[in-house]
């Protein structure tokens, strides 16, 4: 039987409130638990004393018996200096996003390209409509030509 110290959700929709409980790992998240060890209210400010309330003696007792903690509980206990701090490595988070790298380089090109790209995108988008309704074909062909002419004059 694997025992875990974890969060059991309480509270209403969009208003989370958690109980810190000891339960069998096979039980549902909000289901049967062995003992309640405290509460956690993420809606309160981080410096609020009511945000995390834990019975530290009971937690130390369960940890000595071999209970495992979930990630969130281990982080709470690390911040209270009950557990030693783990070194976590997330190399993906350190990499800059592709959008931020490419955005400055593409801005000058982006100004010229949108005038051409919507035309290319509009024509294929209108062709399937033309196949569905043959009566609209002449109208669909005339509209892009009217839009193309002013675009050429602006250059």
Account of the 3D structure:
Helix content is about 50%, strand content about 15%. It has about 160 residues and is α+β, with helices and mostly antiparallel strands. The longest helix has about 35 residues. The protein is built from five helices and five strands; from the N terminus they run E-E-E-E-H-E-H-H-H-H. It folds into two domains: about 90 residues, S16 Ribosomal Protein, Chain: A; about 60 residues. The protein is globular and about 50 Å long. It has a five-stranded mixed β-sheet.
Observed structural traits:
S16 Ribosomal Protein, Chain: A; about 160 residues; alpha+beta; globular; 2 domains; 5 helices
Topology, pairings included?
Layout: E1 3-10, E2 17-24, E3 35-40, E4 52-54, H1 56-64, E5 68-69, H2 71-79, H3 91-94, H4 98-132, H5 137-154
Parallel strand pairs: 1-5
Antiparallel strand pairs: 1-2, 2-3, 3-4
Helix pairs in contact: 4-5
Number of helices: 5
Q: How far is the N terminus from the C terminus?
A: 75 Å
**Number of separate structural domains:** 2
Helix fraction, binned, reads 40-55%
- List segments where confidence is low: pLDDT < 50 over at least 5 consecutive residues: 119-123
- CATH homologous superfamily placement of the largest domain: Ribosomal protein S16
Our Rg estimate from Cα atoms comes to: 30 Å
Compact overview of the structure:
With 155 residues, this protein is α+β, with helices and mostly antiparallel strands. The protein has helices spanning 56-64, 71-79, 91-94, 98-132, 137-154, and strands at 3-10, 17-24, 35-40, 52-54, 68-69.
């Amino acid at each position: 039987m694997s025992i875990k110290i974890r969060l059991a959700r309480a509270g209403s929709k969009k208003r989370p409130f958690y109980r810190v409980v000891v339960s069998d790992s096979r039980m549902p998240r909000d289901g049967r638990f062995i003992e309640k060890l405290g509460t956690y209210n993420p809606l309160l400010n981080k410096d609020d004393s009511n945000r995390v309330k834990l019975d530290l003696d009971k937690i130390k007792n369960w940890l000595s018996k071999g209970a495992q903690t979930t990630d969130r509980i281990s982080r709470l206990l690390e911040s209270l200096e009950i557990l030693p701090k783990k070194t976590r490595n997330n190399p993906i988070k350190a990499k800059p996003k592709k959008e931020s790298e490419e955005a400055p380089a593409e801005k000058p090109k982006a100004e010229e390209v949108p005038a051409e790209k919507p035309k290319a995108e509009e024509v294929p988008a209108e062709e399937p409509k033309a196949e569905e309704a043959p009566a609209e074909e002449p109208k669909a062909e005339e509209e892009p030509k009217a839009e193309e002419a002013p675009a050429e004059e602006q250059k």
